[in-house]
Amino acid sequence: MEQQQHVSKLFVCTAVDCKDDIEEKFERSYTNLQQQIAGLSDKEMHDMLSQFVCKDKQHDEISIGFLYIMLTDPGMAPKTYRDITLVSRDGMNVIVSNLTLLVAEKYSKLTEVARRQLIWVLREFVKHQVLSVENVIWNCLRQAGGGDASHRNLFLVESLLDIFIEYRAWLEANPFLVQSTVYSYVRLIEDHANPALISLRQKEVKFTISLIRERFHDIIPLGRDFVRLLQNVARIPEFEQLWRDILYNPKSLHPTFNGIWQLLQIRTSRRFLQCRLLPEMERKLHFLASSVKFGNQKRYQDWFQDKYFATPESHSLRSDLIRFIINVIHPTNDMLCSDIIPRWAIIGWLISSCTNPIASANAKLSLFYDWLFFDPAKDNIMNIEPGILVMYHSIRNHPFVSSTLLDFLCRITKNFYVKHEDKIRMGVYNSLKLILDKQVIPNLQPLFESPKLDRELRNLIRENFREFVSSFPNLSQPIYPTPHPIQSQIFKKDFQMMHGENYDIAGTVFSTNSGSVVSLVDEDNKTAMPPSEREIEGIFRDQDVESLGRNNKNDENTDDDDDLPLSKVRLKEKPKVELAEAIAESFETFITKRNSFTFEAFLKDFRSLPASAFEEFQLSYVISNTVLILRETLPQQNIFSESKTDEKFLAKSISYPIYGLFRFLYENDEKSKKPFQTMLSEICERIPETGFLFLYFMKIHCKLQTRKNSQLSYQFKTTVYRQICDAADDKIGNCLVRDLDLLEKENTTIYLWLLPDIYREFKSIATNNTELLRITLRCIDAKNVRDIIYSVAQGKLTIFKQDGLIDCIRESLDYETYEQFCLWQLVQAHDVPLKTIQDLLPELEAANHPEALSHFLLLLKNEEPTNEIIRLMLSREAKSRGDPFVTSALRFWCQRYEEKLSEIIASLLTSKYPSSSPNKRKRPSKGSSVASSTPSADQVLNHLEHYRRSCRHGTGTGLYVHDMMQRALQSAYSHSNESTKKQFSDLFALAAEDETTAVGRRGGSGRGRKQPVSKKDANNHSAGNKKNSEIIKTIYSSDENSSEEDWSKQKTTQAAKKRKKVINESD
C-alpha cells in the first residue's frame, strides 16, 4: 500500500518521500477528472465539463487535471489541449499559474516524460500566444543552471533555445524576457566549451549575437554585470567582434549608446542576478544566510559543496553566487545584530574553497566589482561591505585570503580598464571612504599595515591607496563624533563573529511578498551611522556586543528603545520575578549595588539551593540578569592592572563582580548543586573571557595573599579551572589553549607574564603543546625571547621535555621563519641533547626547511661523529647538486676527526656489500631489525661523490686515503654494475689500482697472502701506479690550479710506497 501511495506519473518519488500540497493537488485533480469523464464520448464529456466549470473550484480542478494529462501522456496531449481550449473560460490562466508554480518549485522532481512534455506544452502556449506564458518561460530559464553540463540540463537549454529561435517575433515583443534570455545564454555559453557541445554552442552564439545586435536598446539596461559576462566569452570570434564595436564603434549598435562606460555605470537589476540561480539553490542560500548560526555552518557548506560543486564545470557557479549574495541578500539590522552567519563568511568560504584559478579570479572580481564603479550618491554600501569585511576578518587567522584579495584589488584597479583608470580609482576611493565614514570597520590600519603581509604587497598598497595609509588616526582620539549605539553594535557583532562567539540576541526571519526568505532593504535608507570613540575602541578590542550598553549611561533617553543600547532594552523589557526567599534579598542587593561583595553573598545563598527551588522561568531570570551585570561591570578598557608590582593597582584589577565569582570558587571548591552549575555554564558561554580572566585572577590573588602572609604559600587551584572547563563542556586542554589564545589577542604582555605559571601548574598539558607554543611564537619579539630564556635558565619555566619534542619540532617546520628561529633559541635554552631530535635529519629538505637545517648544523659542530649520526645524515636524499648540509658537516668534522669519520663511513659503505666482509656472513637475530633510515649504497656513494667535488685546494680529501676507506671503495667498485661504475668513476678512481686488481682476482675477498710479484708484473704495477696517479691528478686538477696536482701526486706516492712496503714485508 505504501508503495502504491508513492507511485506517480508526474513526479519521481522515493519510498521516504512524502507528498506536499502541490503534489497532492495535481494527483487529486487528475483522479477526480478521470472519475468524471470515464466512459464518456467527446461530446458528452464537453457538455458535462461545460456545466462543471461554472464553479470556480471545479474549474481549477478540471484545468489542473488536463494539465496533468498533457504532462504525463504524450499520446493524449494534443487531444487534451484541444479539450482544454474548449472548456477553459479564463484564457488558461489557472493552467499557466499552476504550471509556473510547478516549474519553480518541483522541476527537479519531474519525470523524464514530464520534462519533455513540459517543452511541448510551452511550445503550444507560445504558438497560440497564451497570456502570461512568459512567466513559465522565465522560470524555465532559471532551471537551466549554470555550471551544469549534464544531459538533462543541456536538453532544457537547447529546447528553450529552439522555442526562442522558432518564435523570435513573440520573444522580441517582451523586452524583459529578451533581457533575461540574453543574460542567461551569454552566461551559459561560458560552460559549453567542451568540443562535444560545439554544435549547441554555435547555435547559442549565433542566436545571442543576433538578438544583442538587433535589440541592443533592450540590452543596455542589463548594466555592468552583463559586461562581466561578456568578458568570459570574449575569445569567441563573434563576441570578439561585438567587443570591438562596443569599444570603438558604439553608435553602430544603437544611436543612443555612448560606449562601455555607459554600461558600467548601470547597476544590474536583481532579477537578472536571481535568474542565474536555481530556485532550489536560492532557497538553500537564503536558509544559510538567515537561519544558520555562525560556527554551525560547516555541515551545510559540505552539503552545498557536494550538491552543486561536484563537477569541473561547476566552478563558474561561484561568481553567480557571490554576485547574488552581495546584491540580493541584504540583512536587516536585527539579522546583523544576531549570531547568524554573516555574508562575508559565506563569501570567504566560496572563494577559499575554489581550486580553479580562472574561476577564483572571476570570483574575486565578483566580490570587488561594485567597488570599481561605486558612486555614494546612488549605490548602496551593502554592496561593498562584504569585500572589506572578508579581508578584515581574515587577516589574523587566514592572512593568505586577505593578502590575495588585497593584491587582486590593487591590480584590478590599475588594469581593469586602462582608459578610465582614474574613474575606477575614484570608485575604489569612494568605497573605502564610505566604509570608514559609516564605520563598517574602525580603521584600515590592521589590514593595510598588517605585518603578515609581505613587503612587496605593502608597497603595492601604499602605491594604490596612499590616501588611506599616509596617516592613520589615533584610536585614543575621537575619529567620528556622531554616536549611534544600535548601529555600532551591528558592526561590532559582525567583527566578533570571526571568533565564533555566540550571543543570545534574537534574529528575525524576514520574507518578501513571494514568500521566500529574504530581505530586500531600501537602497537609499540602508546606511550605517558611525559609533562613538569608546565604541570604536570596543570594536577593535573585540569585546562582547552587549558591552556597548555601558556607553552614555547618563545621557540616554529611556523613553525610546531605539536610543537605548540593546542590553538596557532587554533589562527594561524583563518583568520583576518573585524568587525563593533564600536568595531574594541577596539577589536584589546584588542587582542594585553590582559589586563583587554583594555577588559573593548572593552566591553563598544560591549555591546550596537545589533545582527544585526554582521554576524554569525563575532560574532563567536569575541567570540572564547575572550574566548581563557581569558583562556590563567589566571595564571597557584597561581590564588588567597597569602595574605588576603595585598592590593598589593589582587589587583594583580584580575587584569587579566576575572576580567575586572566581574568589568564591577559589575558597569553596566542593561540588555545587545543579542550578549553580547551570549558571556557571551560561557565564562561560556568554562571556568568552571567563577562562583567561580566572587565570589572571589566580595569579594576582596568590601574589597578594603571599605578600600579606609570607609564611603561607598560595598556589594555583587547577581544580577550580577544571570546574570552569566542565561548565564549558570541553576538555581542559582545549579550554586552556582557547583561553590563552583570547588572552594573547587581548593583551600580549599579560599573556607572557602568566606563561611561567601556566607551564608550571598545567605541566602535563602545556609542555610540548604545539598549539600553545604557536600562540607564544606569534606574539614574541627579541626582548620577549630574551626574557623567556632568562626564565628557562633560572628554572622558572620549562616549555619542552625530551619525550615528544621531535613531534613538536616536526610540526613547527611550517611556521614563519622568525617563529622558527625563536623556537630554536628556546630549544637551545633547554639544553636538549642532539640524540633526542636527530631522527629528524633525514626528513628535512634543503629548499623547504632552511631554518631547521641551520640550527642542526650548529648543533652538529658541537658533537663528534658517531655511527648513528652519520647513518642518519647519509640517509638524506642527495639532489643532483648534492646536499650542502651533509657536505658542510663532513667538511667540518674532517678538520678534527678525519680518521674516525673515514672509518665510520667506510664501515657503513662496506656493510652494504656483506660478501666482502672478512668474517663469515652472520644470520641476523630474530630480534634485530634494520632501521628505516639506513642509507642505501647509492646514497652513501652519492654523498661521497658530492663531498669529493666540494674539495678545494686539497682540503678534506684525506678522507679517502685511509685504508678502510680504500678497501670500502674497492669493494663497492667490485660489487657495482656498469652504470654505477660509470656514474661514480671519478670516486672509484681514488682507490689504488693494485688493490682493485687484487680484489678482482680474488673475487672480492680481502683474506689470504698476496702472490709474489714477478718482474713483468712489477713493471705493470709500476705502470699502473703511474696511470692511477695520472687519474687522481686529473680528478683533482680538472677545475683547480697546479697546487692540487702536486698535492695529489704527493698523496698518491705516499700511498703507493706504503702498499709497496707491505708487499715486500709479506714476501
From TrEMBL:
- List locations, semicolon-separated: Cytoplasm; Nucleus
Q: Where is this region: Disordered?
A: 524-566, 913-937, 998-1067
Q: Which UniProt keywords apply?
A: Cytoplasm, Nucleus
Start and end residues of each Ints3-like C-terminal domain: 626-991
Q: What is a single Pfam family found in this protein's UniProt entry?
A: Ints3_N
The residue ranges flagged as biased composition, category Basic and acidic residues, are 532-544
Query: Integrator complex subunit 3 N-terminal domain: which residues?
Result: 57-463
- From what superkingdom does this record's organism come? Eukaryota
Please describe the quaternary structure of this protein.
Belongs to the multiprotein complex Integrator, at least composed of IntS1, IntS2, IntS3, IntS4, omd/IntS5, IntS6, defl/IntS7, IntS8, IntS9, IntS10, IntS11, IntS12, asun/IntS13, IntS14 and IntS15. The core complex associates with protein phosphatase 2A subunits mts/PP2A and Pp2A-29B, to form the Integrator-PP2A (INTAC) complex.
Q: What does this protein do?
A: Component of the integrator complex, a multiprotein complex that terminates RNA polymerase II (Pol II) transcription in the promoter-proximal region of genes. The integrator complex provides a quality checkpoint during transcription elongation by driving premature transcription termination of transcripts that are unfavorably configured for transcriptional elongation: the complex terminates transcription by (1) catalyzing dephosphorylation of the C-terminal domain (CTD) of Pol II subunit Polr2A/Rbp1 and Spt5, and (2) degrading the exiting nascent RNA transcript via endonuclease activity.
What is the name of the protein in this document?
Answer: SOSS complex subunit A homolog
Q: Which organism is it from?
A: Drosophila pseudoobscura pseudoobscura
